[in-house]
Amino acid sequence: MPTQPTRLASTARRIATAHGEHFDPTTAAVRQVLAVTEAAGKFVGAYRRATSLARRPGAHAELRADLADVVIAAYVAAVTLDIDLDQAIAEQLTTQIPTPGWHQPIGGDAA
Q: What single-letter DSSP state applies at residue 104?
């Protein structure tokens, strides 16, 4: 069953709360930003292995799990930084994705 964004946000809040109980809360923001980059780096490594671009092979399941970790880490970072990630994604999908700044918008002049 697919996980809904609201469920991801509530799960991220639980994870952030648990982190606050075990780690120094004054370092929460930097810790979570670094967690996103670490997860992204692991995902890149998994992609390289899954596509035979690395010294050792990898499985698609590893790639899938590491991409999920990126999304989870991003949601926890959003909670930590007081960002409504669902809203930010919705805004990006309606503004940035269809008309990136380096392309001419559909039916209009270049941005």
A: P
